[in-house]
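Re-run requested by the PI after the first attempt was lost when the workstation crashed. Everything re-entered from the original request form. Ligand of interest: zinc ion.
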Amino acid sequence: MRTRRGVCYPRPQWRAEEPEEEEEEEEEEESRRRKRQRRVPAGGAAADEAARMMAAEGVAGEMPDFFDSLPDDLVVSILCKLSASAARPADLVGVRITCKRLNELGSDPLALAMASVKSLAVRAKNWSESAHEFLKQCADAGNLEACYILGMIRFYCLQNRGTGASLMARAAMGSHAAALYSLAVIQFNGSGGSKDDKDLRAGVALCARAAVLGHVDALRELGHCLQDGYGVRRNVAEGRRFLIQANARELAAVLNSSPVWKRHGDALASGCSLLSDFGCNVPAPEAHPANRFMAEWFAARGASGWPGEDGLRLCSHSGCGRPETRRHEFRRCSVCGVVNYCSRACQALHWKLAHKAECSPMDRWLYAAGAPPEVGAGEMMMMN
Ligand SMILES: [Zn+2]
Ligand SMILES: [Zn+2]
């Protein structure tokens, strides 16, 4: 077989019987010749010297090493396919620890740029300097998902707001929908700054860009902003249209991922209330690796005092994981006052998934009677 570069691969020679001594010697000589070719491309005195050294090291007796004879670009292209289809970070780590060559080629920017979302889904309990370095290398290689995940971790967990926001902005400039939506949430709340840093119009603009890309939370957020006239001129009909679109996309996503549907069989049987508007019960959407990381990160620190003496709280929607960056940043449920949300999208989703059953019965009665309770400053009403 001949590669594009013109390098010939050795023809495999499997031996059914004990080989003749002569054949064995020929193979050994062939093996030595191939190794010399790979390691010392130029001929001359250097090649002879290397050959003498290898002979002294005693390479005789080894089987032909087909892997060593593969050109680098072919190995990198295989690693690209692997990183694009990896189901967990361990898949990539497992390959890279195999040998020095795979470790070096595994850090090729081409392979890192193609790393899949699942291969970047580092768990909070496994967070380390090397995990940080891996995400940084992928982000530097232009992997937008890595830019977003590392941006969220730095902004919220490591409290490195500047570099976190700039990484998210880099992902957003590459039309990464979740990054656009997260930047919108930061603008709506003035996260990382003071109350005066809220920029509702910028939040709506970012949300609209994420909604165009089909981001479900952004569609829901934009729908509620339009219905409430929050950061944009009020338009109830248009807002309703976005909310219906969000529900439809959510349903489509669930129907397309049948394993998830089966895995949540119990939830289906017990009647998860998401999409109940359509008389259709589906499981809660799977959280993005960045959100899952934050939820696990802060849950692990709960024992040591999170939300802590500073009184900062987490978003009550369990699939979100965003923490407050200053006191009273999030809005609370105006009915019971015990849950807090980073966004209207989180509140609407959590209401359908769980809070509808937990909130005060009095207010459910008021809703049924069509008289929703008043909403105070910094509070948010229940939304369908
Ligand atoms: Zn409530
Ligand atoms: Zn949230």
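Saved to the shared folder this time. The longest strand covers residues 331-333.
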